[in-house]
UniProtKB/TrEMBL annotation:
GO cellular component, one term: 1,3-beta-D-glucan synthase complex
Organism whose genome encodes this protein: Aegilops tauschii subsp. strangulata
Protein name as catalogued: Glycosyl transferase 48 domain-containing protein
Record carries keyword Membrane: yes
A Gene Ontology molecular function term of the record: 1,3-beta-D-glucan synthase activity
């Protein structure tokens, strides 16, 4: 159901898999994603404006309480995955769950360091880039050592990524819900950028198969023949008629 909802605009669009159209759509999406919002800028033109509009339902205290309760459900997802990892050796102590939060905190700090952009007028850019390179090499080496010398497996790596993505989304939802507190702490810009990163990742997941199929011209030709085939069109018309009759009978 999720796949059909996400990809229906491309599957049922005769030009959905044309390479030039895909390039134009990707350019429009990146421009929308990184366009700065502001007063008078509509959500259809800027991700930041759209993101602010999506927070309208949590302007009331009741809305914030409900959003907080709903956001906590993602922690259950993390809790279940942590104790299924092979490296835990079926250890169900709370210390293991607490250690997963320490790892998450380290990942957040690393994200802040990798996204740091010091002023060009200072001598820090070269040092920061050098430090980022060392950290990247260190992270790869640490993961390789974990897989090679412990019970940590590649499957555990992907499972941990899913758990941390869910936990990060929970923290983002809570931070957005209690916006005033986060702004007081001076963390609102970081929350916005991490939210942008999540949406950019989701967009990449959607665009990846579209770009792949758009590379092959025969996919677009095959799609057009199916969509404009008389039998297919007649089948769609019949299904719409049957759906309408069923709705009338139920009413």
């Amino acid at each position: 159901m999720v796949i059909s909802w996400l990809f229906a605009p491309y599957i049922f669009n005769p030009s959905g898999f044309e390479w030039q159209k895909t390039v134009e759509d990707f350019d429009d999406w990146t421009n929308w994603l990184f366009y700065k919002g502001g007063v008078g800028v509509k959500g259809e033109n800027s991700w930041e404006s759209w993101w602010e509009e999506e927070q309208a339902h949590i302007q009331t205290f009741r809305g914030r309480i409900l959003e907080t309760i709903l956001s906590l459900r993602f922690l259950l997802f993390q809790y279940g995955i942590v104790y299924k990892l092979k490296i835990t050796a079926h250890n169900t102590s709370l210390a293991m769950y607490g250690f997963s939060w320490i790892v998450l905190l380290v990942m957040v700090l690393l994200f802040k360091l990798f996204t740091a952009t010091p002023r060009k007028s200072t001598a820090l850019p070269i040092f920061i880039r050098f430090l980022q390179g060392l950290l990247a090499i260190g992270i790869i080496a640490a993961i390789a050592c974990l897989i090679g010398f412990t019970d940590f497996t590649i499957a555990d790596l992907f499972a941990s990524a899913l758990a941390f993505l869910a936990t990060g989304w929970c923290i983002l939802c809570l931070a957005i819900t209690w916006k005033r507190v986060v702004k007081t702490l001076g963390l609102w810009d970081s929350v916005r950028e991490i939210s942008r990163m999540y949406d950019a990742g989701m967009g990449a997941v959607i665009f990846a198969p579209i770009v792949f199929f758009s590379w092959f011209p025969f996919v677009s030709t095959f799609q057009s023949r199916i969509l404009f085939n008389q039998a297919f069109s007649r089948g769609l018309e019949i299904s719409l008629i049957l759906a309408g009759n069923k709705a009338n009978q139920e009413s």
